[in-house]
Design brief:
The protein is mainly α and 193 residues long. The protein has two domains: 78 residues, no CATH class; 114 residues, no CATH class. Helix 1 packs antiparallel against helix 2 and helix 6 packs antiparallel against helix 8. The longest helix has 28 residues. It starts with a helix and ends with a helix.
């Protein structure tokens, strides 16, 4: 269910883009048709997340703000570069924030965010933070490359098919965390009288 909520805005953006490109007045206007769909879908997504969790994380708030601001600028200036570069700005910001937290402040940002939900040893949190820094940097660079050197249509395709990267990363992260969670559960059972 959570995965569907996470992918809801980008799926609607992609569908709106493709439908307008195929049946609309032309491909060159498709991004300006799909951008408000993305903005509206993101607002709905955040409302659903808030209804379920009774809060929005900092990442949710930043994502919503960037989509609304970059989307509004895209539409106001009729310049697709703003919405196309939004993912690069988001991922680069994540990479920088995570890098500063672990190497500058010597703190685990992920542990601060997720530590109440997951109990993991500090070295595991550190490795997860480092992995997220490199993942976010990779995603920022990938989006920047596609937005710069490929067509708008190729970029839109990359937005949907590029979700292979986050899915693979999350699956890999889950596989890495799983043994540590089992070890923690086993230690808790042994210490319970």
């Amino acid at each position: 269910m959570k995965i569907l909520i996470d992918f809801f805005p980008i799926l609607l953006f992609f569908a709106a883009y493709k439908l307008h490109a195929w049946f609309g007045v032309g491909k060159e206007e498709a991004i300006y048709f799909a951008t408000p769909v993305l903005m509206g879908a993101t607002v709905v997504q955040m409302a659903i997340v808030y209804a379920i969790d009774k809060k929005l994380t900092a990442l949710h708030k930043v994502t919503l703000a960037l989509i609304l601001v970059f989307g509004a600028i895209t539409l106001a200036l009729h310049d697709k570069r703003f919405i196309m570069w939004k993912p690069t700005v988001l991922y680069a910001g994540m990479a920088i924030a995570l890098a500063v937290s672990i190497w500058g402040m010597r703190k685990s940002f992920l542990k601060a965010m997720l530590g109440s939900q997951l109990e993991l040893p500090d070295p595991v949190w550190h490795k997860l933070n480092v992995a997220w820094v490199f993942y976010a940097a990779f995603m920022a660079i990938s989006n920047a490359y596609v937005a710069t050197y490929f067509s708008e249509d190729a970029w839109a395709n990359f937005k949907i098919w590029g979700y292979v990267f986050p899915l693979a990363f999350l699956i890999g992260q889950g596989l890495y965390i799983a043994p540590h969670l089992r070890a923690h559960d086993a230690n808790e059972k042994e210490s319970t009288p």
